[in-house]
Amino acid sequence: MPDKVEINCTINKQPQKLHAFPMERLLDVLREQLRLTGTKEGCGEGECGACSVMIDGRIVNSCLVPVAQVGGAAIQTIEGIASEDQLHAVQQAFIECGGAQCGICTPGMVLAAIDLLSRNPNPDEAEIRNGLAGNLCRCTGYIKIFESVVRACQK
């Protein structure tokens, strides 16, 4: 088994030195080493989006990313979305519209919505559905999630 390596990156705008096995999943390093437990494990196969994070401005499934690939990268997790005293408009909209139930998919949904709105600040329903397509939810039936994204557009 290879030895642990040091990986320097930035997570939620803070420089980090990670010590991990090169093929360790980014998801596990975030949750276990850094205690950033907002990133959830749903399927472990890149199908559900619960483990979504942003790496260098692109949304990815952290369960599929070997930590060795994030050297020098800027990573943003759900914990890095709100400012010190202000929720992001998408987070606030999820609260106002009831877009979250059990909470497993919520961090990934919020990040996917933020990613969508950064590229298209006024999406129509089809664009919202497409933008959130990589995220699965077993609780909500998606309607309140879609309403949350529409509400966030209005803010």
Describe the structure.
With 155 residues, this protein is of the alpha+beta class. It is built from five helices and five strands; from the N terminus they run E-E-H-E-E-E-H-H-H-H. The protein has helices at residues 26-33, 89-97, 106-119, 125-131, 143-154, and strands spanning 5-11, 14-20, 52-55, 58-61, 74-76. A five-stranded mixed β-sheet has the order 2-1-5-3-4, with helices on both faces. The longest helix is centred in the last third of the chain and has 14 residues, at 106-119. It is elongated and about 50 Å long.
Give me the secondary-structure topology.
Layout: E1 5-11, E2 14-20, H1 26-33, E3 52-55, E4 58-61, E5 74-76, H2 89-97, H3 106-119, H4 125-131, H5 143-154
Parallel strand pairs: 1-5
Antiparallel strand pairs: 1-2, 3-4, 3-5
Helix pairs in contact: 2-5
> Which strands sit side by side, in order, in the main sheet?
2-1-5-3-4
**Share of helix among residues?**
25-40%
**How much strand?**
15-25%
The sequence of SSEs as H and E is: EEHEEEHHHH
Main β-sheet: number of strands, strand sense, barrel status?
A: 5 strands, mixed
Number of helices: 5
Number of strands: 5
The whole-angstrom Rg is 16 Å
- Any idea what the shape is? elongated
Given as residue ranges, the uncertain stretches (5+ residues, pLDDT < 50) are none
Fill in the keyword field for this structure.
155 residues; elongated
Quick synopsis:
This protein has five helices and five strands; from the N terminus they run ββαβββαααα.
